[in-house]
Automatic annotation (TrEMBL):
It is a multi-pass membrane protein. Belongs to the ABC-4 integral membrane protein family. LolC/E subfamily. Its main location: membrane. One of its GO terms (biological process) is lipoprotein localization to outer membrane. Keywords: Cell membrane, Membrane, Transmembrane, Transmembrane helix. One of its GO terms (cellular component) is plasma membrane protein complex. This is ABC transporter permease. The chain crosses the membrane at residues 20-46, 274-300, 321-345, 376-395. It comes from Spirosoma aureum.
Length: 402
C-alpha cells in the first residue's frame, strides 16, 4: 500500500471519535450509494420494458414487412412473390389485405381492424402462445372462420364455442354512395368465430380472416395486397436480409423490419431512459457535493498534519493524492455498495418478480428488468468522474497549504 492511500485510509477508518466530518462522510457515502442503486435499477427497468415490447411485437408482427411507398395497396405479382420467397433467409411469406371494417355479432357492433391472411400466417406459430379460447383456424372444409382479439370479443360478447351465431363483417362498396340506411352500400361476409387471442391493447381491435374473404369485402383483385409479411429463418442476419429484399422489390416498395414499424415507441423509450439517467446523475452529483464539503472541512482540520508532512519532505503531489484518495474511498465505497445492491435487486426481480405491476389488466405480473453491462459501466464511470471533479478542488487546496 502506497503512502497516500495509507494516510487516506487512516483518516477515514481510524478516527477515535465520531466528529461532524465523520458523519458527513457517512452521509456522502450513503447518498452516492442510493443514487447509484437507483440509477442501476431504473435503467434496468427501461431495458426490461424495451425487451418486453419487442417480445409483444414478435407475437403478432413479422420479421420483415413490405409496404407501398404511396397509397395503401399494390400489385403483388406471382413473379414478385416467387423472387421474394427465393431470397436467402426467407422462410415464410404472407400476402396481407388489411383495412378497417364494421363487425356485427348478435345485437352488438364495433369497428375492427380486419386482416386477411392465408394459412402461411398460422404456420409462423406466433399466436400459439396468445390464444385464450378456441382454435387457430381460418378455413376448413369450405367454411370460413375468424380469429378475433380479446377486445373485439368483449365489445361484441362473442363466444368461441357458439357456432350458430355468425360474425358479420361489413365494408362500404366503392361504387355506392355511403349511407348506413342503404343496405346495398356494404359488402358483407359472415364467418364463424374459431378462436380468441390476447396480446396487448394495441392489437385489441384485430380480426383475422382468410385473405379470400378480405379481398372480396374490400374489392381487391387476386394479386392486390396492402403488405407482404416475411418470416426469416432462425439465425438470419436481419440487416443483410432487409437489404436483399429491398433490392428485389425495387423503388416503389419499402422493406421495414419489426423495429422500423415501431421506431417511434423505441425512440420514446430511449429518450425517457436518457432523461431519467440525467436526472439521477444530477442526484449523484448533489450527493457528491457533500464529498466536496467533507474534504474541505477535513483540509481545515488537518492543516497541522499537512504542515508536518511538508516538513518531512512531502510534495504537493503527494498531499493532493492523499485527499483525492480520501474522496475516492468515500464515493467508491458508497458507489460499489449501491451498485451491488442494485444488481441484486434486479436479479431478484428478474428471478422472482416480487414487485408487481399493480394492475389487473397487465399482460405481465411483475415489472420487467434486464441488466445491461453497458449501463453498469456507464454508472461506474459517472461516479468516478463526479468523484474526481468534486475531490479535486479540496485536494488542490490541501496541496497549497503552507
Amino acid at each position: 500500500m502506497n503512502l497516500p492511500t495509507w494516510i487516506a485510509r487512516r483518516y477515514f477508518f481510524s478516527r477515535k471519535k465520531r466528529s461532524f466530518i465523520s458523519w458527513l462522510s457517512i452521509l456522502s457515502m450513503l447518498g452516492v450509494g442510493v443514487g447509484t442503486m437507483a440509477l442501476v435499477v431504473v435503467l434496468s427497468v427501461f431495458n426490461g420494458m424495451d425487451e418486453l415490447n419487442r417480445q409483444i411485437f414478435k407475437t403478432f408482427e413479422a420479421d420483415m414487412t413490405v409496404l407501398p411507398k404511396q397509397g395503401k395497396r399494390f400489385m403483388a405479382s406471382p413473379e414478385l412473390l416467387t423472387r421474394l420467397q427465393q431470397t436467402a433467409g426467407v422462410n415464410l411469406l404472407t400476402a396481407v389485405v388489411q383495412d378497417n371494417a364494421l363487425a356485427r355479432y348478435a345485437n352488438g357492433e364495433t369497428v375492427v381492424r380486419l386482416k386477411g391472411v392465408d394459412d402461411s400466417y398460422l404456420q409462423r406459430k406466433q399466436l400459439d402462445s396468445a390464444l385464450l379460447e378456441g382454435k387457430l383456424r381460418l378455413r376448413d372444409r369450405g367454411v370460413n372462420y375468424a380469429i378475433v382479439a380479446d377486445g373485439v370479443r368483449n365489445d361484441l360478447s362473442i363466444s368461441a364455442v357458439d357456432i350458430l351465431t355468425p360474425l358479420e363483417i361489413l365494408y362500404p362498396q366503392s361504387d355506392q354512395s355511403f349511407s348506413v340506411l342503404n343496405p346495398n352500400a356494404f359488402n358483407r361476409e359472415s364467418l364463424t368465430v374459431s378462436g380468441v387471442f390476447f396480446i396487448e391493447s394495441k392489437y385489441d381491435n384485430f380480426v383475422l380472416v382468410p385473405s379470400i374473404v378480405a379481398r372480396s369485402l374490400f374489392g381487391y383483385s387476386t394479386n392486390e395486397a396492402t403488405s407482404l409479411e416475411i418470416q426469416l429463418k432462425p439465425g438470419t442476419d436481419e440487416n443483410a436480409a432487409k437489404q436483399a429484399l429491398q433490392d428485389v422489390v425495387g423503388d416503389k416498395l419499402i422493406v421495414q423490419s419489426r423495429d422500423d414499424l415501431n421506431v417511434d415507441l423505441y425512440r420514446t423509450i430511449r429518450i425517457e431512459k436518457l432523461l431519467v439517467a440525467i436526472t439521477l446523475a444530477f442526484i449523484i452529483l448533489v450527493a457528491s457535493i457533500n464529498i466536496f464539503f467533507t474534504l474541505s472541512m477535513l483540509v481545515i482540520e488537518k492543516k497541522e498534519d499537512i504542515r508536518i508532512l511538508y516538513a518531512l519532505g512531502a510534495t504537493t503531489g503527494l498531499v493532493r493524492r492523499i485527499f483525492l484518495t480520501e474522496g475516492a474511498i468515500i464515493a467508491l465505497t458508497g458507489a460499489f455498495t449501491g451498485l451491488a445492491i442494485g444488481v441484486f435487486i434486479c436479479l431478484a426481480q428478474e428471478q422472482y418478480g416480487f414487485i408487481g405491476m399493480g394492475t389487473v389488466s397487465s399482460i405481465i405480473d411483475a415489472y420487467p428488468v434486464r441488466l445491461d453491462s453497458s449501463d453498469i459501466i456507464m454508472t461506474a464511470v459517472l461516479v468516478i468522474v463526479v468523484t474526481f471533479l468534486t475531490s479535486w478542488f479540496p485536494a488542490q487546496r490541501a496541496a497549497n497549504v503552507k
